[in-house]
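Q: Start with the shorter request: fold the first protein.
A: Done. Sequence, then structure:
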Amino acid sequence: MAALAALNLGADFYVADVGVELDKGSMATAAEKLMSAIKQGAGGKPVGYTSFALPQYHPDFPFTVFSK
C-alpha cells in the first residue's frame, strides 16, 4: 500500500485523498477497512483525509468513517 510505503520511508503524516471513488453509496465498509489498515500501519503518525469541499452535495460519502 502506497500510504504505508510513504510512512515507512519517513513521512511525518499521511493525508488520504478520497472522493469520487467512495461516493457511490454502500462504501462505508471499504472506507473503514482502508483507514483501519493505514492507521494500524502508521505507527502512531497522524493520518487524515481530504475530500469534497461541500459535503451536503455528497450524502452517500462516508464522512463519519474518515472523521474518526
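Q: Next, the second protein, separately.
A: Sequence, then structure:
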Amino acid sequence: MTEDELKKLLRTVVSFHDLGKPVSHEHQHRTTTILLTSLLDHLHYNKKQIEFALALIDQDILGNYLKSDPILATNKGQ
C-alpha cells in the first residue's frame, strides 16, 4: 500500500469509526464492524486493508486516542 493509499484509508476509518453508535450504542463496535466492512468493500479496499481498518476499530484505538487528546477533548461538541 502506498503512503497516499494508507492516508486515504486512515481518513476513511477515522471518519466512520463511530458509524455503529447511533444504531446500537451497547453494541457499537460490532455494528461498526459490520457497516464499515460493507462500506470499505464498496469502496474497493482489499481484504488486507479492511482487516487493518477493523483492527483499529476493534480495540477502540481511535476512540481512546480522540478522548485522550487535549486539543480534541477541549473542542468536543464545537
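Q: Describe the second briefly.
A: The helical segments are 3-16, 28-42, 47-58, 61-68, 70-74. The mean pLDDT is 81.
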